[in-house]
Design brief:
It is a single chain. The protein is an all-beta fold. About 0% of the residues lie in helices and about 60% in strands. It is elongated. The termini are far apart. The mean pLDDT is about 95.
Length: about 120
């Protein structure tokens, strides 16, 4: 079983910063990609940032220049540094991972979601 554990959410004033962390644990063969999504009430869940196995990154236009995604491969952990936060960044942030696991003599690709962490930007 694979589990994604998130931390770092909270309440912050506009212009402030937060750093989210997501650690993957379990019977992991390899992590192919990890990313962060966010979902506000009544809205769909949208990609915020992602980082692939090759090290390439992708950001939503709304967060470019403010958010930075990074990874620590030794710890199976991905981070999201969020600076210059705006009220419209308020949402539940979910970690996502595409992971290859070993099943008997073959491998299986599977996707996993973290439990979500609330980020609220308000004065």
């Amino acid at each position: 079983q694979v589990q994604l554990v998130e931390s770092g959410g909270g309440l912050v004033q506009p212009g402030g910063s937060l750093r989210l962390s997501c650690a993957a644990s379990g019977s992991i063969f390899s992590i192919n990609a990890m990313g962060w999504y966010r979902q506000a009430p009544g809205k769909q869940r949208d990609l915020v940032a992602a980082i692939t196995s090759g090290g390439s990154t992708n950001y939503a236009d709304s967060v470019k220049g403010r958010f930075t995604i990074s990874r620590d491969n030794a710890k199976n952990t991905v981070y999201l540094q969020m600076n210059s936060l705006k009220p419209e960044d308020t949402a539940v942030y979910y970690c996502h991972a595409d992971i290859t696991i070993v099943l008997l003599s073959t491998t299986v690709d599977a996707s996993y979601w973290g439990q979500g962490t609330q980020v609220t930007v308000s004065s």
